Structures are given as C-alpha cells and as structure tokens.
Amino acid sequence: MRLTDLLHPHLDAVTTVVDATGGGLRLEPYLHLPPGVTLREDGQQPVADGELVILSYGPDPELHGGEDACRAVLARMRPGARGLIVFGHAGTELPYHRLLDHLVAHRCQVLRAAPLDYVHLHAGAVIARTDELLPPHDFFGRPVPSDGRATALRIADEYVFADLASRSLRARVLDLEAAAEEAERNREASGQDGLAERLAATVREREQLAAALRAARDRVDVLQARVAMLEGSTSLRVGKALVTAARSPKRSAVRLPGELYGLWRGRRRTTGSAPADAPKPRSEPEAPADGRFHLAHRALTVAPRDRLVVAGVLTPATAADFAADAVVNRLLPHDGELLLRRTDPDALVVQLSACVGDGPWWLTGTGLAPDLDRTLAELLAETRALGRSAVLWRDVPATVAPGLGRLAWDAVIDADTGVRLARLDPAAQGRERLREVFRADSTRVRLSRLARLTGAPDPLDVRRVAVLAAPRDRTDVARLVGQVLGQVHRPVEVVVPDPAGLDELTAAGVTVRLGRPLAPWVADWTDLTEDRPDTLLLDLMCAQEYSGADAVGHTPAADDYVFVPSLRPLLVRRELHLSGTEPGSWAGQGHRLFAVRGKEPS
Question: Where are the annotated segments for Disordered (predicted)?
C-alpha cells in the first residue's frame, strides 16, 4: 500500500498536515496532498482540530526518530486532531506495545493500520485524539457506522479473533521449526552426510587410480615400441650370432661367417629391417583405452553466465520447457558423470516422474534397478565434489520411488514443473488464466525458485521493464508515481530527464535513473495524460512470453494475440528501442510484432 492510500481517506475536514517526523525522513514527495490541504513543518505548537500530524518511529533513530519524540508529539495533540504514525519496523516485528500505553494515556484511538510498500517504511497507523470512542474503518478506509457501545464490542471481538488467529500461526511456526530441527537431527543420525562424503572420496580415489593406470599404459606402450626397435636392430642380431657361436664353437662357428654376410647384405637392402619373427613396431601410437564414451552434442557456454545451467534427470517434455529459459543437459546413466564434470552446472536436478516413467532412468529409486540407484548415488557424490547443489523435484507422489528420499539432497521442490505460456490457448484459456500462469504457475517461475536455491542467475530477470517518462509539473509527477506503483507487474526502473519529486518511487524499490534504460524491456509513457490500467504491463508481458515477440502493442483493428506487420508499440525489447529505427520498418528487418487488444472484451 502507498502512503497516499492510507492517508487520503482520513483528510476529510483536515486543512493542515504537520510534518513532525524529524530524523532523516522527507515525506513530502509521498503525500500528494489534494488542493486545500497545506503542509508545514512542526513548530512544537499543539496540534489542533482540523490538523493531522505525521510521526515516525523505527529501529534507526537517525532516520525514523526515537520513541521519546513520538510520545512528545502525542502529548501535544488536542481533541479533534489526527495523526499518522509511520513505522520503520517490519509488520511482524512492530513494537506497538511500546506505544500502546501512551496512546491510551493521551486518549488517542487507532482508526486504521496497514503495511506500506517501501524500502524503509513498512507499516503505518492513522490515529485520532478523541474523548469518545470513534467507529473503526474498513480495509478501504471507510468508517463503519456504529454507536459507541457497538464499536467497543466490535473492537473487543475483533481483537480476540485476531489474537486467536495470530496464536494459531505462531503455534504453526513453532511446530514447523521443531519438525525441521527433528528432521535435521535424524538426517545427521542416519549418516547420510557421512555416506555422501565417503562416496565423494571414493569417486576422487577412483579418478586418481584411473589416471595412474592410464599413465602406466602409456609408459608400457613406449617401452614396447623401444623393445621392438632394439630387437629389430642389426647390432643386437650380430651380438646374438656371436654369443651363439661362442656357446657352441664346433657347430655354430662354421656358420658364423655366412650369418654375418647375410646380415650385411640384408642391411644394405633395407637398412634397419627386422627379421620376420621379430615383433613389428607400431606405425602409429594407439590412443590409450581410458573407458570414456564419445558424447553427442551438448549445450554449454564459455561466456560469463547470465542463465541458469541445469544438468538433470528429466523427462523430454520438461527438458524442452526448461531449455526456453536455461541451459539444459539431460544426463544418461552412461555419460552422467562425465557431463557433470564437463558442463559444471549450477544444479543437478532429478525429476521424480523421469524415474518412474519410460526412459533410461526407469525404475530408479524403486529398488528394482540397483545399478541405476548406484549410478544416481555416484552422480550426487560427484555433484557435491564439484561444490554444486543436488535438487530432487518431486512432481509426483514420493511413494512411487521411495528410495530417492533416502539420498542426501541439498533441496527438495514439491511442485509440478510449471506451464509454458506458449503451450496455452489464449482463446480457450482466457486472459485471467494467462495472468495466473504468468505470475504463479509458469515454468519460468518454477526455475526462478530453483535459481534462488542454488544462487544462479534468476530467469525472472528477463521480465524486468523500464518506463520512459518526462513529467513536466507536480501533477505529472503524481500521475506517473500512481501509474507506476499501481501496476500489478511493477516496472523496475523509471528513466526521466529530471528525478526531482520521484522519491516515493525510490522508496518503493523502483530505480529512478537518467540516460538509457538498462532493463530488457522498455515501455514509453511519455504521454502521462493517457489512462493506463493496472494490468497493462502484466498483459503486455504475458503476450510477449507467449509469443516470444520483439515488440508488443495495439493495432487500429484491435487485433488480439496475433502476429502483425505493424502496430503501435507499447513494450519493446531494449536493443530494438536503442537501435533508433522507425517502428514501421521493424517487420521488414525481421523483428516479430505481436498485437494484443487494448481492452477486455465486454
């Protein structure tokens, strides 16, 4: 919620807003006060009827102010005065108990409290100085009609129910923390970590022995070649003839001159030729047999990584869906270890449905294929030796392959693998279904969860949008801030010629910059008089992810979800926007243009 959404419903009969925040806060750009309401700095005067004072309280006294300053302002409030307290504490850590007694002592009633969507302000509460009980306000800031006794009963009843709900949530959190601790103790007791370490040590030892064996084979090949060369040399044959003649002078000495003459003549014919019975030297050195397989093409990259890299035991459909947003290598039982070492993935992903359906890993984890279970355990050990994460993706019930649950996984994802928007039918599914899949159920969202677990580049980064605008006055600034913060798919940056007055965007986590946009997608909002629905960027990004187009926009014929030769661009790829070419020439240059209808059909 924005500060204006919390404040403006309570400005009836208010003519002056007093800024008593102190510290380092500057809330004027956040307020967007309507005509007739003025803002002034706090002069330590009493806050009278028709005035609303803004206070702040948070963990950083230099920024938010301290508790004592907040209490001093409460003491200066007179009957009929109102106040707005902004908190720097998160909602779950809000120390409201430190102010509760002071609010009651100074007869201040809390009318409404809500979370705020800013980086340094997380909650706010509207209060009123009153001598009688005022009716509370609903979620939209409207007072609930009621007399004093009914109001008291309503507040008391709501407090009891809210306390019941919060106690249930706290108990659930405690139960989950206890279960997590128990699971960690059981995992340590079962020695799974020790098993994984032993497997990793065994793999390393096996690799060292294999390397030593390959080196020994190379040495043997060299020695055999040298022996063959020596055995075929004339010097060795002469020596053998002399030794034979010396051992049997009577029989061999007579033949010695003939043998030496034959060796001399043979040497002249073919210098260095070996006898027929001598082993022939190899014409070409043979490659050492190291037991490796020649691999088919696999996807890899040598550039700095900006995409998630996955090595996985995956179904063909899942691998195809993941490949749209990540570098994917499917592991097979015979080449999995080698691919892990060669591609250095961010994570090893084992999809449970790939182990129970038709495929090379069928029956893994069921106990019916112990060789596959052993191979998978070696893959996990190799993954740990590489310092990468091993993730089990349980998209089907775990009971179908109970053996997988006993392996040492770094993380477990209990969800399906999501839906690619390109596989949906917009006409049959409807725009609401597309929005739902885009935000919560798409393959890209599932991969983003995997990326957060492994510390890899987030696939959702490709959804970032930059808004181009040029506000001219305070009205344009207020309109721009409202349109940007009101978007369901909020932009990550706003590019303007002058950032003055856009502090609220920065506080809400939206980057305000000068110059050129950095986000992958650009939306031109130069005309701030145009009405833009809060689902505009959401629908445009849904259409882009569905189509893979370079530009998305409207056409005069109100075409919907169809590629067109020309359109009015509303969302453009950053590279295309910076190219400076005219939109009318985009289609001729090979860029894909996709049209969506401007408004929902009635």
Answer: 267-289
